[in-house]
Specification:
The chain is an all-alpha fold. It is built from one helix and no strands.
């Protein structure tokens, strides 16, 4: 959830909230990648990095 502070010409959200959203998105991508790598290993495929 964002704080709803008015921020001129920066996408409508304040800088701290923007940084939180970016960090959450990057963490989510890492989790998805890790889970998919584990599934590939279960099936005998070596994941490429």
């Amino acid at each position: 959830m964002v704080c709803a502070k008015v921020a001129p010409l920066s996408g409508g959200i304040c800088q701290p909230c923007s940084e939180k959203i970016r960090a959450e998105a990057q963490g989510g991508q890492r989790d998805i990648r890790d889970r998919s790598d584990r599934e590939l290993r279960k099936h005998g495929v070596k994941p490429e990095k």
